[in-house]
Design a protein that fits this description.
The protein is 12% helix and 47% strand. It is mostly beta strands.
Length: 275
């Protein structure tokens, strides 16, 4: 570790060989790693991302890339929440680049917890080629509401981009600078937890009734916290509320409903989510 923080990188490559997806490429620098590949479904490769220091501090720079080749299928998650600690000044960055070429990737990390005083930039780029399929989510918790700790100082910059064959389908950018942006009517309206789930649907979700079926399955008490839409072949669900547990439960329910349509597989919940 240098004087400015960890400089860490992890590159994963998934390939289908003899009808089974293998973690064929794996290279790392610094404290980023994966556990051994798991196969609860037989052929689909499940991988857990690890960050052994237990959290990200000011000055840390993390780079993660995943490359899924033709006919390969992979599910990537994390063993628990990722914590971004307060900083004395330097920014922490985590950049993720996900490439899928005629394969399938499910990118389902557990939530990011951003401590008051943190200064972070989180950026994800998804590049889809050909008939690539994708389901992914991001859940962010600003502050620690379970102990009444608000994100009253610090800065967080979130970026997300998704491309299909080089054409941009979705660009998002959100900047939060302390309490003012948390409370703004055009901001987060005093809600510390936000999340987005995105999936490729191919045929429009509205035409095949998928949107209506998913809406009907959601608890009525939570529907005002969740928005669902479909545009340009993308299913998008957004959560704004006060609980990471609720966000995860809602996204998990949506993922279970989406998976047969998008991935052509029944739900197979990663065992680590139950621990």
């Amino acid at each position: 570790m240098g004087s400015t923080g960890w400089q860490a990188a992890l590159r994963l490559g998934f390939r289908q060989i003899a009808g089974k997806t293998l973690l064929a490429e794996r290279s790392r620098q610094g404290p980023l790693a994966v556990q051994r590949a798991l196969y609860p479904e037989g052929d689909c490769c499940h991988v857990y991302l690890l960050h052994p220091p237990g959290g990200v501090a000011g000055g840390d720079q993390l780079r993660i890339s995943a490359d899924v080749a033709k006919d390969a299928t992979a599910l990537v998650t994390t063993p628990g929440a990722t914590k971004f600690y307060r900083s004395a000044g330097p920014w922490a960055t985590q950049r993720q680049t996900l490439r899928v070429t005629d394969g399938c990737l499910e990118w389902l990390p557990q939530e990011n917890i951003i401590f008051p005083g943190a200064r972070i930039e989180l950026a994800t780029t998804v590049q889809l080629e050909g008939n690539a399929r994708f389901i992914g989510w991001e859940i962010h918790c600003l502050g620690r509401p379970v102990i009444d700790e608000a994100f009253d100082h610090g800065a967080a910059l979130f970026r997300f981009s998704l491309f299909r064959d080089g054409l941009p389908l979705l660009h998002e950018r959100l900047e939060v600078n302390g309490q003012a942006d948390l409370g703004a009517s055009a901001g987060l309206r005093h809600h510390p937890v936000l999340g987005t789930l995105i999936a490729t649907t191919g045929a429009t979700a509205g035409d095949n009734g998928l949107l209506d079926r998913i809406r009907a399955q959601l608890p009525e008490s939570q529907r005002n916290r969740l928005g669902i839409t479909e545009v340009d072949g993308l299913f998008i669900a957004r959560y704004l509320g006060d609980s990471t547990e609720t966000a995860r439960a809602l996204f998990s329910a949506i993922w279970k409903a989406l998976r047969p349509a998008v991935v052509d597989r029944p739900p197979c919940v990663p065992r680590i989510w139950n621990t």
